[in-house]
């Protein structure tokens, strides 16, 4: 699944550690999400959507 | 939850944690003393019935078992050092990929307890496998040590499940599932071969050692697939 996490994070000038702290996850989780090695659970996806004030579909894209 | 209740829960948890560590140390010291005494007496008798009777597969399993024990004790030591030294905590390869994040550091005490418990339980099994003399008098000691070790593993694993975030939990679950499936396949082939008398039967201890090695390798592969930076010496820069 593709996502725009890295772009959204860069727009707000956040580091991976800062984003991780805001979501109460590890920095490794943020890195794995951004590199596409891991897809978030639904609760984490909703947390991300609330943090960026965007719908989930605006952050994640499951189209091939 | 109020601050007072949170502080009380933390103190109770710390006491339980320290109590388990203390029990493990007492049992470990007692079993170490008994085993050393047995080895010394066997040496003085001038023979070693175990060594003359042991099969190749049993000998190999015990050797690999000692390597595993060393790995678990070193792991517990490294997590202990990570608690005290930021340099160790910041190294992902020394902390099993967790690194020095605040959320990861919360897991270190429970990882120490988990590996100490694992070492205790598996250590008892290894000592019994190499033929340490056990009698009705000292059997409760072995049972007690193994039970305390398993209890420590269960309690710390439950705590770790709630502390580790979903990424590390996913790696843990995937590694367990994959290693179980791989061992199932190995067991099917191995048992058929044994029934056909192509290979000797493996003891339960040998199967357990085999499973642990399969799990270690599988866990490493799954973790590396999810996070190629897991073996880095330092925290990597943002991608």
From TrEMBL, chain A:
<dbReference type="Pfam" id="PF01381">
    <property type="entry name" value="HTH_3"/>
</dbReference>
<protein>
    <submittedName>
        <fullName>Transcriptional regulator</fullName>
    </submittedName>
</protein>
<dbReference type="InterPro" id="IPR001387">
    <property type="entry name" value="Cro/C1-type_HTH"/>
</dbReference>
<feature type="domain" description="HTH cro/C1-type">
    <location>
        <begin position="5"/>
        <end position="59"/>
    </location>
</feature>
<keyword id="KW-0238">DNA-binding</keyword>
<dbReference type="InterPro" id="IPR010982">
    <property type="entry name" value="Lambda_DNA-bd_dom_sf"/>
</dbReference>
UniProtKB/TrEMBL annotation, chain B:
<feature type="transmembrane region" description="Helical">
    <location>
        <begin position="56"/>
        <end position="82"/>
    </location>
</feature>
<protein>
    <recommendedName>
        <fullName>DUF998 domain-containing protein</fullName>
    </recommendedName>
</protein>
<keyword id="KW-0472">Membrane</keyword>
<feature type="transmembrane region" description="Helical">
    <location>
        <begin position="139"/>
        <end position="158"/>
    </location>
</feature>
<feature type="transmembrane region" description="Helical">
    <location>
        <begin position="15"/>
        <end position="36"/>
    </location>
</feature>
<keyword id="KW-1133">Transmembrane helix</keyword>
<feature type="transmembrane region" description="Helical">
    <location>
        <begin position="107"/>
        <end position="127"/>
    </location>
</feature>
<feature type="transmembrane region" description="Helical">
    <location>
        <begin position="205"/>
        <end position="224"/>
    </location>
</feature>
<feature type="transmembrane region" description="Helical">
    <location>
        <begin position="170"/>
        <end position="193"/>
    </location>
</feature>
<keyword id="KW-0812">Transmembrane</keyword>
């Amino acid at each position: 699944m593709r996502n725009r996490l890295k772009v959204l994070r860069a727009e707000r000038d956040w580091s991976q550690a800062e984003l991780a702290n805001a979501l109460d996850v590890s920095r490794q989780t943020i890195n794995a999400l951004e590199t596409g090695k891991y897809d978030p659970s639904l609760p984490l996806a909703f947390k991300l959507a609330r943090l960026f004030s965007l719908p989930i579909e605006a952050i994640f894209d499951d189209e091939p | 939850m109020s601050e007072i209740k949170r502080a009380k829960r933390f103190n109770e948890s710390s006491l339980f944690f320290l109590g388990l560590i203390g029990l493990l140390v007492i049992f470990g010291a007692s079993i170490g003393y008994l085993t050393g005494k047995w080895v010394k007496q066997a040496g003085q008798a001038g023979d070693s019935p175990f060594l003359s009777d042991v099969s190749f597969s049993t000998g190999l399993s015990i050797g690999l078992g000692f390597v595993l024990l060393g790995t678990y004790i070193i792991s517990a030591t490294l997590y202990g050092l990570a608690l005290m030294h930021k340099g160790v905590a910041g190294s992902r390869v020394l902390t099993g990929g967790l690194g020095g994040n605040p959320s990861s550091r919360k897991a270190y005490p429970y990882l120490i307890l988990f590996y100490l418990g694992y070492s205790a339980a598996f250590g008892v099994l290894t000592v019994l496998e190499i033929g340490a003399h056990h009698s009705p008098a000292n059997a409760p000691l072995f049972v007690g040590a193994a039970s305390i070790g398993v209890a420590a593993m269960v309690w710390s694993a439950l705590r770790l499940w709630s502390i580790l975030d979903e990424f590390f939990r996913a790696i843990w679950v995937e590694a367990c599932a994959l290693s179980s499936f791989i061992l199932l396949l190995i067991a099917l082939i191995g048992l058929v071969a044994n029934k056909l008398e192509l290979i000797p039967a493996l003891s339960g201890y040998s199967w357990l050692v085999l499973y642990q090695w399969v799990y270690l390798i599988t866990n490493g592969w799954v973790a590396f697939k999810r996070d190629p930076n897991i073996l880095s010496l330092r925290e990597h820069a943002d991608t």
